[in-house]
Specification:
9-stranded antiparallel sheet; single chain; alpha+beta
Amino acid sequence: MNPAPFRALARVVPAAALLLVMTACTDDSPPSAASSSSVPASPQASTAPAATTPTGRTTAMNIRLTLDGHPVAATLNGGPTARDFAAQLPLTLSLRDLNQAEKIADLPRKLSTSGAPEGADPEVGDLAYYAPWNQLATYYRDAPYATGLVILGHMADGGAERLATADEVTIEAAP
């Protein structure tokens, strides 16, 4: 029996379930009287609660990066490009250094950039998609604005230091 179709299915099913959970947990209903106060309404139940990074960016999904065997918590924002990236998880990627500021890796397929800004100014700890080269870019030092760069999320404190020496990353939904 050929195990290849089962391995492919084992990768697709968790990603599809994750995408379903992410889309099911959005609140598209009109505001009610209870939510019109200055206190924001609590979100619906979710397996990946929203959090705020030190930069103030709201996040929608918790993920875990494993850098050369060491786990690092991270979050993805709620944008369409980040959701498309999440649909590819889990991923194990070889990292290459670029400009002594970031680690890059080729992705298996292009991500949607529909509605994404023209470019971004990445911060230390950011996870980003560089659309022109179809690459994941992860930042361990400051880097300048880049056209075609879409911020996907951010690593927890300490992740950027570990990233600087990493040669491989596994990215998966946080348990």
